[in-house]
Design a protein that fits this description.
alpha/beta, single chain, 3-stranded mixed sheet, Hypothetical Protein Aq_1857, Chain: A
Length: 88
């Protein structure tokens, strides 16, 4: 994975969540099953193999498999839908 891009609104939302959860970073990972879901969750530390990114004063860890199989991840905030994660 070559880049992680987070819009300013999403950075603000993520910072608030990190403060609320008293966590130093967020982690993007995939859920199993037939309907693949991706989640963004506060974490204390990365798992082995996670890729680390820093943007807007926040640290994001990306699950190894996602980092290896995507060229970019975009995180944006929509007033109606909340945080949205898009992959390329």
């Amino acid at each position: 994975m070559s880049k992680l891009i987070i819009d300013d609104k999403a950075i603000g939302v993520i910072k608030k969540e990190l403060l609320k959860e008293n966590a130093p970073a967020m982690r993007i990972f995939g859920g199993g099953g037939c309907c693949k879901r991706f989640e963004l969750s506060p974490v204390k530390k990365p798992l082995a193999g996670d890729a680390a990114f820093m943007q807007g004063g926040i640290k994001i860890y990306v699950e190894k498999e996602l980092a290896e199989n995507t060229s970019a991840i975009y995180i944006k905030f929509d007033e109606q839908k909340g945080l949205i994660i898009e992959f390329q």
